[in-house]
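User: My collaborator sent over this chain with a note saying "see what the structure looks like." That's all I know about it. Can you take a look?
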Amino acid sequence: MSTRTLIRGGLVITAADETHADVLIEDGRIAALAAHGSGPAQSWTADRTIDATGKYVIPGGVDAHTHMELPFGGTFASDTFETGTRAAAWGGTTTIVDFAVQSPGHALREGLDAWYAKADGQCAIDYGFHMILSDVNEHSLKEMDLLVEEGITSFKLFMAYPGVFYSDDGQILRAMQRSASNGGLVMMHAENGIAIDVLVEQALAAGHTDPRYHGEVRRALLEAEATHRAIQLARVAGAPLYVVHVSAQEAVEELTAARDKGLPVFGETCPQYLFLSTDNLAEPGFEGAKYVCSTPLRPAEHQAALWRGLRGNDLQVVSTDHCPFCFTGQKELGRGDFSKIPNGLPGVENRMDLLHQAVLDGHITRRRWIEIACVAPARMFGLYPKKGTIAPGADADVVIYDPHAEQTLSAETHHMNVDYSAYEGRRITGRVETVLSRGEPVITEREFTGRSGHGSYTPRATTQYLG
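Assistant: Without extra context I'll predict from the sequence alone. Here is the result:
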């Protein structure tokens, strides 16, 4: 059965332009756009008509950095693929790219198959996978080629977490050389984990056990140093590089310097670095544990450099690094020892709204909002133009967004499976009203009308951001 949906009267915003247009959807794809009130638009008929008068019509968000059900620090991220993708939809995100994890000593394929199994039949929205390389050796390097052919076209390595995910410079160089030949994109967690571990040990020995010391030992200079080193290794390998969760001014400066040389080096930041700071880590009692993530929150003065990087395209993407752990029973594992607090924040539901608030606050334009939240992540990770835009032929992942509605962010009203909000009590303007995923309503006028299993696995092309 062919189904047609018509969205009438809204302001269609893409990264390229803003137009008052009606949008015709047919069989899960965008079929056509026409100026509101024009002859073509008036001739259209549909099974379902959505009135978007006074609202924005925007592409569904692409969150290219999530960790559903991630095992970490002796526990698991509290959102499943079912709860996490539902929360993403509530926040106007219609595609996530999650991280499958290779266990040391095991094949990439084994880790990837485990993530396929976790997500299969559970997701409310579409999803893809990156692959975390925990064990770079001849076998895993060969497997990288096979994964790229299968649509897993990006690989994350860690300069942090010795004994868990850490790769040394030689392993990183080999993986980068492989990606240079197979078209994959290396994603780097850039922090000097060896040096950080020394500072952690010294802090604990001095009795500095509170959550705020998590931020103090993970120095901005050690993020900048690792970012610089990753860039030089990528230059040696002749490979592009994408640095995840950039939090510090000094790290932005390293990316800017590389890009000024014309190098294919890219960076993402996350809402927590744009809207939160070390003041949150220093909240009294053990409250600061809620804000422990890595890279850590920085002093508020770093935020200006991040916004400048986003405006000037030295940072291309805002993802969430959504990795939620409940305060009760999970974050509490680190009482008396900040190094045992599971690292990660909830945020998949809040990204689109917080970035809209940034538009109102004058940090970015409306089109740049769509660029960094939808288009750039889709292009960076081989999903464009199927995802990230509203254009004929694209998947009908569409959000009707009310730019005037006011809301207060709170754990009492969010849909993430976590017992606190990192943005508790924050008042913002702008709210998702209706969400379509491939033309199917997932959120309908602030009610969840989707289902687990609607979301489909989406293989990805190699990065489309080069050149």
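A starting point for your reply to your collaborator: The longest helix spans residues 220-237.
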